[in-house]
Design brief:
Mean pLDDT: 88
Strand order of the largest sheet: 7-13-12-9
Strand content: 35-45%
Largest sheet: 4 strands, mixed
Distance between the termini: 133 Å
Low-confidence stretches: none
Number of strands: 30
Structural class: mainly beta
Helix content: under 10%
């Protein structure tokens, strides 16, 4: 019943007149009659007699058709199947339509009216439309590819993106940070996904972070020194030259036990390798205090006495004696003769 009025045809001879429901002049309007079967009559007057003939017109009802709800999508969404029509078997038409699919990229950004045309089994046709709004997706840039050293700390990924507020994913990622040690040696693809609040559309980008191992460096074994030993040049023990020393008592490449003080001191050597990584090694220098030494009381002996033992009252034991007429731990009175002698 959706068709408009149409001209009544097929009459013979021409020049007669039509009459019946929905007839106006020589046209029939189904919207006036509604659905049903209607007889229309064609009458012809030849000057003396009137003849007539009738025919039936069947007006079928047309189902109400819906193309489905309007929707909003994003320009980077892949082509998708058009659904939601109230009757199956119809044809879709409009920008971005190919068969039963709609391609936002082909349609382009904007509001597009999509039409659904349906023909029923009795030949009646109907159509309905819906709008599909295609929204633009601003570009997302996650930053350039970079090289990080495995011994570096967390790297803030958000400092390199063009729009903040998205999420990062990939090996070594924790929130906004990338940890080279957690990721491990090698190349890692880090993806940044951002959803635009105003459109609810999302876009993503990725970068590659290459984690490399610093060149190894060694500074040799730990050492022990006495506090009165004087300054020590710690250079020459490192396997890679050109670095810097740091720690208590260090001045350039010189270690001063007095400045450092009694105890253990960690001296660190840092060198930047050809890849820009900090190669680090350390050694411990133990500064020992001097022992408290006592040679004991002065000794008085008579000339002609035998050898005098020097170490009876010396503390701590285990030291060595020196001086005139000293032989090991003994003082030779027979050789010294009378007098006063200093022994150490």
């Amino acid at each position: 019943m959706q068709d408009g009025s149409f001209a009544l045809s097929g009459e013979s001879p021409s020049g007669g007149s039509w009459s019946g429901p929905g007839v106006t002049g020589s046209t029939f309007d189904p919207s006036v009659t509604g659905t049903g079967i209607f007889e229309v009559t064609y009458s012809y007057f030849d000057g003396s007699c009137t003849t007539s003939d009738t025919k039936s017109i069947t007006v079928n009802d047309v189902d109400n058709i819906s193309a489905g709800q309007d929707l909003v999508t994003c320009v980077n969404v892949p082509a998708f199947l058009l659904t939601g029509a109230s009757k199956s078997g119809g044809l879709w038409n409009g920008d971005g339509v190919s068969g039963n699919f709609f391609d936002p990229g082909t349609a382009g950004v904007g509001v597009h009216t999509i039409t659904y045309d349906y023909t029923s089994g009795d030949g009646c046709s109907a159509s309905a439309s819906r709008t599909i709004t295609v929204q633009d997706i601003p570009a997302v840039n996650s930053g350039n590819d970079i090289i990080l050293c495995s011994n570096e700390g967390n790297y803030d990924l958000s400092q390199d993106v063009n729009v903040v507020g998205g999420t990062f994913s990939g090996n070594g990622v924790n929130g906004l940070n990338f940890n080279p040690s957690s990721a491990g040696i090698g190349s890692h693809q880090i993806t940044y996904n951002y959803r635009y609040p105003s459109t609810n559309c999302s876009n993503s980008d990725f970068r590659v972070i290459n984690v490399i191992e610093p060149d190894p460096v060694s500074v040799g074994s730990n050492i022990e020194v006495c506090i009165d030993q004087g300054t020590i040049d710690v250079s020459g023990t490192e396997t890679v030259s050109g670095g810097t020393w740091s720690g208590n008592g260090i001045n350039g490449t010189t270690f001063d036990p007095v400045v450092a003080g009694i105890g253990e001191h960690v001296l660190t050597y840092t060198v930047i390798d050809v890849n820009g990584c900090n190669s680090i090694d350390s050694k411990t220098v133990t500064v020992n205090e001097l022992p408290v030494v006592s040679a004991g009381s002065d000794i008085f002996v008579c000339s002609g006495s035998p050898l005098v033992t020097l170490g009876d009252n010396a503390r701590p034991i285990g030291g060595s004696w020196s001086g005139d007429y000293v032989n090991g731990d003994n003082f030779d009175v027979a050789r010294s003769g009378s007098g006063t002698f200093d022994v150490t």
